[in-house]
């Protein structure tokens, strides 16, 4: 696809998706980019290329179908994604952990996206004050050719099933896990229960896409649940 600027010079835009490539109507398409553009002859296209890259990343994430993981981009900027993790087994079973994923403005040529749990989770790799997960250990240098946002989210899910205590951000959690596993499990249980007790608290964010939970109401949620179950039966029956 070619486009002429005011001087008549043609500029080549990224190619459109080919047959077989999935394009979803994600919240990213309705967001106006507010990030700064790079310098150079293609400066005006910087926000366009960034949004194109993030839409591709969101499509890749959808295709992975990661169990217990739900993510939606912010209504204000595609550089901020809201997410929630449901832990279904192991020490952190029944955990419902909300998080924010912040993507650098120079993505995919910058640093690794930053993932922060809100509120902080009691875990050796999670900063007990800020809630930030140490993702740099696995993604020490972001490589645009091989690294993707879904891999960061998969890593965030995996740390609750394969606990690493080397060079911890939460030394208390690491020490208890290594030397007093029973006490560690008690602290984790207290953390999980505390978060669940405040699950229905009003959301602090004014973003329309921020994830919020509400108590079950049959008149509101009943039909949705039935629709999900019916779709699931159709998927299973069609295989």
UniProtKB/TrEMBL annotation:
<dbReference type="InterPro" id="IPR000608">
    <property type="entry name" value="UBC"/>
</dbReference>
<feature type="domain" description="UBC core">
    <location>
        <begin position="49"/>
        <end position="197"/>
    </location>
</feature>
<dbReference type="Pfam" id="PF00179">
    <property type="entry name" value="UQ_con"/>
</dbReference>
<dbReference type="InterPro" id="IPR016135">
    <property type="entry name" value="UBQ-conjugating_enzyme/RWD"/>
</dbReference>
<feature type="region of interest" description="Disordered">
    <location>
        <begin position="1"/>
        <end position="21"/>
    </location>
</feature>
<dbReference type="InterPro" id="IPR050113">
    <property type="entry name" value="Ub_conjugating_enzyme"/>
</dbReference>
<protein>
    <submittedName>
        <fullName>AKT-interacting protein</fullName>
    </submittedName>
</protein>
């Amino acid at each position: 696809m070619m486009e002429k600027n005011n001087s008549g010079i043609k500029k080549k835009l990224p190619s459109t998706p080919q047959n077989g490539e999935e394009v979803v109507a994600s919240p990213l398409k309705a967001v106006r980019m507010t990030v700064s553009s790079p310098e150079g002859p293609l400066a005006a296209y910087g926000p366009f290329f960034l949004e194109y890259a993030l839409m591709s990343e969101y499509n890749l994430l959808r295709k992975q179908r990661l169990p217990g993981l739900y993510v939606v981009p912010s209504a204000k900027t595609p550089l901020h994604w809201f997410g929630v993790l449901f832990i279904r087994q192991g020490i952190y079973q029944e955990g419902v952990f909300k998080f924010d994923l912040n993507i650098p403005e120079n993505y995919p040529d910058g640093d690794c996206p930053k993932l922060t749990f809100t509120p902080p989770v009691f875990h050796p790799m999670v900063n007990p004050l800020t809630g930030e997960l140490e993702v740099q250990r696995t993604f020490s240098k972001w490589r645009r050719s091989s690294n993707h946002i879904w891999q960061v989210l998969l890593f965030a899910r995996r740390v609750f099933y394969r606990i690493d205590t080397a060079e911890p951000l939460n030394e208390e959690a690491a020490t208890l896990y290594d030397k007093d596993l029973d006490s560690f499990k008690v602290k984790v249980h207290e953390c999980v229960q505390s978060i669940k007790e405040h699950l229905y608290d009003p959301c602090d964010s004014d973003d329309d896409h921020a994830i919020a939970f509400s108590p079950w109401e049959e008149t509101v949620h009943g039909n949705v649940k039935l629709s999900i179950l019916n779709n699931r039966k159709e998927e299973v029956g069609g295989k």
